[in-house]
Design brief:
Strand 1 and strand 2 form a beta hairpin. The strands form two sheets. A five-stranded antiparallel beta sheet has the order 1-2-3-4-7, with no helix packed on it. The chain is built from one helix and nine strands; from the N terminus they run αβββββββββ. The chain is elongated. The C terminus is likely disordered. It has about 160 residues and is an alpha+beta fold.
Length: about 160
């Protein structure tokens, strides 16, 4: 009887641990789902309080990359730079990077293989949301570009509001 009672207590304890772990995972899953549906991707810059300061288009005319200076939130709670990709075939927007407004600038360089985000602030001030992006082409194929960052000693952009 002692062995059966001990096994019963162990199995009951193990069952409670598994039940607690399952509930915890379910709560985390629902929280992440709610976060992604409500907060994860902000409004595209065309409907937010943003001004384009630089634009680059891919050589295959499948996508366009913008640097915007934005103010978001009530009473301009957040001000900074945002790098956005517009997939031209389906008019989809994807945010690639953000940086708070600081003494410095942010710019982009686009070539056949990668998008380089240049910045003059500290690397910790740049938040890169995606290390690459994929966009559809008019001929039915798709193209991929990687996203890299490069720190500059001095800002080279001459766009208004984007100088040191």
């Amino acid at each position: 009887m002692g062995l059966i009672n001990r096994l019963s207590a162990i199995s009951r304890r193990l069952g409670l641990w598994l039940l607690a772990a399952g509930i915890t995972l379910a709560v985390l899953f629902v929280a992440v789902l709610i976060y992604q549906l409500s907060v994860y991707q902000p409004e595209p810059p065309t409907v937010a309080n943003c001004q384009a300061i630089q634009t680059e288009i891919t050589s295959d005319n499948g996508a366009q990359v913008y640097v915007y200076q934005c103010q978001r939130g009530d009473n301009a709670e957040w001000q900074g730079y945002e790098v956005w990709l517009q997939k031209l075939l389906d008019e989809e927007w994807q945010r690639l990077a953000t940086s708070p407004l600081a003494n410095g600038c942010i710019g982009i360089e686009l070539d056949e293989r990668e998008l380089v985000i240049q910045y003059s602030q500290s690397r910790s001030d740049i938040s890169v949301a995606s290390s690459s992006f994929v966009y559809d082409l008019a001929d039915g194929g798709a193209a991929t570009r990687s996203v890299a960052t490069r720190q500059l000693d001095r800002c080279t952009l001459e766009a208004a509001g984007n100088n040191d």
